[in-house]
Design a protein that fits this description.
This protein is of the alpha+beta class. The chain contains six helices and eight strands, in the order H-H-H-E-E-H-E-E-E-H-E-H-E-E. The chain has helices spanning about 1-15, 20-25, 30-40, 50-55, 140-145, 170-175; strands at about 40, 45, 95-105, 115-125, 135, 160-165, 180, 185-195. The strands form three sheets. It has a four-stranded antiparallel sheet, with no helix packed on it. A two-stranded antiparallel ribbon has the order 1-2.
Length: about 210
């Protein structure tokens, strides 16, 4: 949790200053102090979504303001859907989904694969109005086995699955269904690992 919080904090600072270095930290220490005050309470991480925080913690927040003009936190800060602001409107409702995978392959000197893994992530870009709820189905081996359906090698067994906070984990554990209210814009919906046999695309020979 500590490492993830530090990673999210650096990403948050990049959303404000583009680059995180000694100069940017020194020039924006007031904003950084305000961000730390919001994202951490009594040692427990709170909201770290930059899009929500930027609604009421701005680069001009270090200026003196009348109390009547102090921006009020949006309802997303304390709402059930903290990663999405209310009242979002788009002319066209669109969702783009990309599956990005990389292969980690260990091959012996004689060309025999010793170990192979696939690391993947599902990247999404959401441009939807209101508070839509989306559902995504997978060729999940666990679900097919629960339903007593034959797999015939067309299913996958996901390991080390990590979801974005918008995913309803209870629905996935019971129905193996990815149900979520997406953030607005680009985000990583999930990441996973597949421990599967991969045929090498090239032949390895010894130089001896």
């Amino acid at each position: 949790m500590i490492v993830m919080f530090l990673y999210r904090f650096v990403q948050l600072l990049k959303s404000y200053f583009n680059e995180v270095d000694e100069e940017s930290v020194r020039d924006n220490f007031v904003i950084i102090y305000e961000l730390l005050d919001e994202i951490m309470d009594f040692g427990y991480p709170q909201i770290t979504d930059g899009k929500v925080l930027q609604e009421y913690i701005t680069s001009e927040s270090n200026k003196t303001e009348d109390e009547a003009n102090i921006p009020r936190p949006p309802s997303a800060v304390t709402g059930a859907v903290s990663w999405r602001a209310e009242g979002i409107k788009h002319r066209r409702n669109e969702v783009f989904l990309d599956v990005v995978e990389s292969v980690n392959l260990i091959i012996a000197a004689n060309g025999t694969p010793l170990r192979s893994e696939i690391f993947g992530s599902v990247q999404m870009r959401s441009q939807l109005s209101g508070m839509p709820e989306l559902k995504l189905g997978l060729n999940d081996k666990v679900l097919f086995e629960q339903q007593g359906r034959a797999t015939k090698g067309r299913t996958v067994e996901l390991e080390d699955v990590k979801f974005h906070q918008c995913v309803r984990l209870s629905r996935f554990e019971t129905a193996r269904e990815i149900s979520f209210v997406p953030p607005d814009g680009e985000f990583e919906l999930m990441s996973y690992r597949l421990n599967t046999k991969v045929k090498p695309l090239f032949q390895v020979r010894s130089c001896d």
